[in-house]
Amino acid sequence: MIPSIEWIDNKVKMIDQTLLPHELKFLEFIDYRDVAKAIKVMNIRGAPAIGVAAAMGMALATIEYKDLPKERFLKEMEKAADIIRKTRPTASNLFWAVDRIWKIINSFPDEPKNISDLVIEEAKIMAQEDINVNKSIGKNGSAILDDGDVVLTHCNAGSLATVQYGTALAPIRAAIEEGKNISVIADETRPRLQGARLTAYELHYDQIPVKVITDTSSGLLMRLGKVNKVIVGTDRVTSDAVFNKIGTYLVALAAKDNNIPFYVAAPTSTLSLNETVDDVTIEQRDSKEVSHVLGQVQIVPDDVECLNFAFDITPFRLVSGIITEDGIFTHAELLKKYKK
Ligand code: MRU
Question: For ligand 1, is residue 157 a contact (CB within 6 Å)?
């Protein structure tokens, strides 16, 4: 699968995911404000991809302000960081990425021009790191997959949700590379249909067998024995729970009720173990995403209110294991390994 985002000639190039699967169109930005908007309106989405986009947005801002005196440069960069941080509240990678770039800016008391070069370099390093981390998650996670397994996934935690290769889809790609026959069932994932539009698109693109189901079908398919494992991604892992696309909690409950292993693929950039559930803001998006399918076909009568929570909370008691780039961990092992 082609990279979802790249830094090319001081421009940010990304796939416009709102047009998939109908059109593969690239957007190119030189203004960090446009990158922030692309995150907000979900031209690019998925926690790791949002993180890298945020870092590249900061890099564009350093180019815009590098000729300013140092104090002015820092002031303008703070404004840019604030605009990027305010795009979406739940995915921890967004804040992790902005903080990482700030560390670079603060640790080099140098001329803005040189700082800009360093920040650009760091953003590019973060993009390559994302791919390397996903490949490691793939290798670690393929061990839980047996030849012939049918894996159910929710939302899109694939190549399109990262720079490349994906998180939840990485063990599937790695297992197939190891010669195992693996097929995928993708929840359509209302209301923005990331499963139907994006997971199906990228797996089909890579000739990996995939079927799409309505979100409400996953429980029955589990009960009928048509699912061997579940692997999902995550937007934030706190000390007491996993945040992911709305509907993940229901999939986890059904998996538990049917004794089906439920795994979460989580790059360490998504771990936020010093937080608990109460510290996290769950994004609520425009109700029109619910009342109008893909913003077009109205399915809810006028004047009827719709609620549109973008993410939900899955308690660790429903999680069989967390797959990171370092291995597979139970809840207790994860806290022991990573909680500072
Ligand atoms: O609203 P989205 O499309 O950004 O939500 C994405 C998800 O919930 C993914 O599962 C998560 O970000 C992990 S992506 C590797």
Answer: yes
What is the pLDDT, as a whole number, of residue 109?
A: 66
Cβ-contact 52, 5 below 8 angstroms:
yes
Test site for ligand 1: of 188, 235, 243, 263, most ligand atoms within 8 A of the Cβ? 235
> Tens digit of pLDDT for each residue in 229-254?
999 999 999 999 999 999 999 999 99
In the reported structure, the alpha carbon of residue 299 is separated from the centroid of ligand 1 by a whole-number distance in angstroms of 24
Does ligand 1 come within 6 angstroms of the Cβ of 136?
Answer: no
Write the DSSP string, 120-137: HHHHHHHHHHHHHHHHHH
Q: Whose CA is nearest to atom 15 of ligand 1?
A: 157
CA distance 148 to 259: 18
Position 320 scores a pLDDT of 98
Neighbours of 264 (CB within 10 A): 29
Q: Which of 29-38, 108-117, 162-171, 206-215 has the lowest mean pLDDT?
A: 108-117
Q: How far apart are CA 63 and CA 128, in angstroms?
A: 21
Where do we find the tokens 């890579």?
206
Model confidence pLDDT, tens digit, residues 192-231: 999 999 999 999 999 999 999 999 999 999 999 999 999 9
Quick check: is 326 catalytic?
A: no
- C-alpha radius of gyration, the chain, whole number: 20
Report whether the peptide linkage leading into residue 21 is cis, meaning its omega lies within 30 degrees of zero.
yes
Q: In angstroms, what is the span from residue 131 Cα to ligand 1's centroid?
A: 16
CB 240 within 8 A of CB 315: yes
pTM metric for this prediction? 0.97
